[in-house]
Fold this protein.
Amino acid sequence: MNRMETVRIGIIGGGLMGRELAAVCGRWLHLVDHPVRPEVVAVADLSEDARNWFKQVSTVRTITADWHDLINDSDIDALYIAVPHDLHAEIYLAAAAAGKDFLGEKPFGIDLAAATAIVDAVERSSAFVRVSSELPFYPGAQRCYEIAQSGALGDLVDVRSGFSHSSDLDRTKAINWKRQQATCGEIGVMGDLGMHVAHVPLRLGWAPSDVYALLDNIVTERPSPTGPTTCDTWDNALLAMRTPGGAGRDFTMLWETRRIAPGQMNTWYFEALGMDAGVRFSTRTPATYHRFAVNAGKQVWEEVQPGNISSWPVISGAIFEFGFADALLQMWASYLAERAGALGDRFGTATPQEALTAHRIFEAALQSAQARTAITL
Ligand SMILES: NC(=O)c1ccc[n+]([C@@H]2O[C@H](COP(=O)([O-])OP(=O)(O)OC[C@H]3O[C@@H](n4cnc5c(N)ncnc54)[C@H](O)[C@@H]3O)[C@@H](O)[C@H]2O)c1
């Protein structure tokens, strides 16, 4: 029987992602026997338009321009913090200092120094904190993760994890905070897409020892209301990494993050190949994953339809198809179940330590690109 204890959530940053959470809460009844029910009760955003959008959310009782109001509100149980990267440190540190639970958006600090300070503060605090990364919750990705985790792949040969979209292919697209170092960070696209790519490999314990990076800033200027403006972030990043695989052997791992990937709308993928088996999943073909095995001496790739079998069970039938909004619902189900001590052995939301490890890798990638050599972590 579902107990459905209410968790009152405050959103700091009611933009693209803040609104997604309000929608996730609106369809919480999709989940079967989840221990809690989240309600968005407050929102803080500097933008009046963003604040006004939340007037249609019936559970919201506080709408403010000042995020401190939410940190100080004892009637809020947990925060979702989804603001530009240059604000992560200040707000995450304040939340941790207040002992407020939160799900923080990636990259969890604008750079390695900010991430280190945040993770230190979180570890000193009583707050339950996780980092946003929803794409591994696709059923096909979950099955690939489970197969890889079981050890069935044998000695690892090669791992590839990537996120490619083409939202910046249009040179006339206006500049925004995600396209400028001051607000997005020097790591550029790695800050935007890197945590998505890092989550599954790091959860599997695949942390690289050496990084060689190729970084590309393709569009260096974009329109703004005041005329052409410098667009100084890395658009694309390709990281080739030596990764310890046990027994004194290393395997190759490639992380690819691209805002300009001609031909790709919004493709997240994960592939791991070992001597005994392999797995491959892409959100481009979300209803299937692929499994490789050597069968009677023949190399066989099987296409498997995992069905709508998600990490947390849902009322929707197993034959229905899973999408981005379902991945977000599953991530929130995971965060709030783990917070309630009810996650069990289900897949967990990314941790602050995983975000910090990702930042160390991205910092090494910056050094590598500058020195045109591999960097040892
Ligand atoms: N998990 C994902 O799939 C995903 C997707 C996109 C963005 N993100 C991350 O989410 C975060 C926010 O990105 P977004 O796309 O929602 O951006 P956005 O620009 O759409 O929204 C950010 C909001 O923060 C508000 N804001 C700015 N300064 C503020 C302040 N001082 N106090 C309160 N509000 C303030 C802005 O007015 C805006 O409404 C970033 O960390 C980004 O990397 C995650």
The pocket of nicotinamide-adenine-dinucleotide is lined by residues 12-17, 44-47, 50, 67, 82-85, 87, 105-106, 132, 134, 192 (CB under 6 Å). The chain has two domains: 5-131, 135-312+351-376.
